[in-house]
Specification:
Elements: H1 2-28, H2 41-52, H3 55-71, H4 79-97, H5 103-127, H6 134-166, H7 171-186
Helix pairs in contact: 1-3, 1-6, 2-3, 2-4, 2-6, 3-4, 4-5, 5-6
Length: about 190
């Protein structure tokens, strides 16, 4: 019974963690020397759910994270939704084509996703004619923000792994249960 309750607590804990990470990145990295090294901590969360969750669960978590980010931002409505969903779908597609053999590959994926996220956001702003002042700032901060996102993701992925282990969220076990359920449905049980 306690394992079931812990598994059910995974989603709310993940959303609370997203709120905490958003508060941390928007309060700690706002002052002068640190605003040149402002990571996007939620990208690591989007990459984690793209890799470790099923498509529907990961997509819903990504939508919730994007909505939380939009509520906290003054960016045009839909910017974070489109950017984070693009990263989520891109990572899901990349895992079908490429193999992520180790932790370093995950960090490299985070660096690529961080740069892509900034460029996708700039493209969306250009489409809606809001990028006239943002493009210069984005290009100036592009590499430093990606570096800090990659650096912070080292600790975040360990935190996400501990959260999943504490709440008994095992991808292989989930897949096995899903396969057993499909097998039972096919046999008419």
């Amino acid at each position: 019974m306690s394992k079931l309750l812990l598994r059910l607590a995974n989603l709310p804990l993940f959303i609370l963690l997203a709120c905490g990470l958003l508060a941390l990145q928007s309060s700690l990295f706002i002052s002068f020397p640190l605003n040149w090294l402002q990571p996007d901590l939620l990208i690591s969360m989007v990459i984690w759910v793209a890799l470790k969750r099923e498509f529907s669960e990961g997509g819903i978590l990504t939508l919730l994270v994007a909505h939380i980010a939009e509520l906290h931002s003054s960016a045009p409505k839909g910017l974070f939704l489109a950017s984070y969903m693009s990263i989520f779908l891109g990572v899901r597609l990349a895992t079908r084509v490429f193999v992520l053999p180790d932790f370093r590959a995950l960090i490299k994926l985070t660096l690529i996703a961080s740069v892509s996220w900034k460029l996708i956001g700039l493209l969306i702003l250009a489409i809606i004619n809001k990028a006239n002042l943002q493009w210069k700032n984005t290009l100036i901060h592009l590499l430093s923000d990606a570096f800090m996102t990659g650096l912070c993701s080292i600790w975040l992925y360990k935190l996400f792994l501990r959260l999943d282990q504490a709440t008994h969220k095992d991808a292989r076990l989930e897949q096995r249960l899903t396969d057993d359920l499909k097998l039972a449905e096919n046999e008419g049980i």
